[in-house]
Design goal:
The protein has 5 helices and no strands. It is mostly helical.
């Protein structure tokens, strides 16, 4: 967990607000997912930096889709409570639900 927070803090220090164009390997989606998995307060902290809760990876998947796919109910709840788009579709037209 410590390494995840260091990774997130490093990304946030480099560019704020982050966007997919600013960072390699879909970092915003990863940071949001990891923050949501850590807890609601961590997610709010990440979002307060300007990260887009609906940022997507190369497959057009959001952190909510990743959390649902991994069965991480806590992260799913945190993301939905923070306003993640439950209707967003990935490249195959699938949603998190």
């Amino acid at each position: 967990m410590k390494n995840t927070l260091i990774y997130a803090a490093t990304l946030l220090a480099v560019a704020s607000p982050l966007s997919l164009a600013d960072t390699p390997h879909n970092a915003p989606q990863r940071v949001i997912y990891r923050a949501a998995a850590a807890g609601a307060a961590e997610l709010q902290q990440a979002l307060s930096t300007g990260l887009n809760i609906n940022a997507v990876d190369d497959d057009r998947e959001t952190a909510l889709m990743r959390a649902a796919d991994k069965g991480n109910l806590s992260a799913v709840r945190n993301l939905i409570a923070a306003g993640a788009d439950v209707n967003r579709q990935d490249e195959d037209g699938e949603t998190a639900l």
